[in-house]
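A note on notation is needed here, since sequence and fold are reported together in a single record. The reader may check this reading against the record printed directly beneath this paragraph.
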Amino acid sequence: MDSTAPFPHPSAAADADNLVVLRDVSFGYGDRKVLDGVTLAVPRGKVTALMGASGGGKTTVLRLIGGQARAQSGQVMFDGQDVGAMAPTALFAARRRMGMLFQFGALFTDLDVFENVAFPLREHTDLSDALIRDIVLMKLDAVGLRGARSLSTSEISGGMARRVAMARAIALDPELVLYDEPFAGLDPISLGISARLIRQLNDAMGLTSIVVSHDVDETLGIADHVVVLANGRIALQGTPDDIRNSADALVYQFVHAQPDGPVRFHYPGASVEADFGPPEHRVQSPRVRSGP
């Protein structure tokens, strides 16, 4: 299957159907390319999953959408506006339309559950305390934690912390929610609850969601659109069934958790014979002296 089908190269005419569009985006650190000419579209009202091996550029895509990093070439469009060209005031306004769930929740440890969720409301609105209270309790109720409002972060489990972070991410009723590894470190029960919440919140609130995850089964179970990134490029994009049934060697290795394939188990290096053969034939390391 063509890696761009059934989601064609985004055009200006198609932007109305897509909340986020990346057009030929490249980004890197020094000589290391993280993204190399990536083009993708995130449909409005859908759950889009960004998947692939570690270091493939998934979190970098989130950072580019949020404006924490600027593309070195190409365009990152949010609701028809180029994030990279935004002035600070416009960028801050765009960010208020986004919610972010960080890896492991990133809750404020000196605030209780209620105040963690109230934080963006206190920072970005002039709402009264009474109205903030009602909104916070509604958001906590949506993730099943209204009764945990007074607990400190040290009194809740990892799964509960992730749900508190979800409530905080939707506190300002964003249009777009970015989930960076929402299932990392969760037990199977908490993982299933978190995955179901992402799907339910997306549909109930009319959100657009981008989920960065390595958890194949749960992520494919909730996603509408899946993008597999590898080596700075898109290896494949399509529906969950397209990904499950792909014959592409790299996608197959990732989906089926194969230890070897295009992504090698061994880091590139000298041959076994060169490292363990007779001393006179061993490869010299600049940092480790070879033995006698």
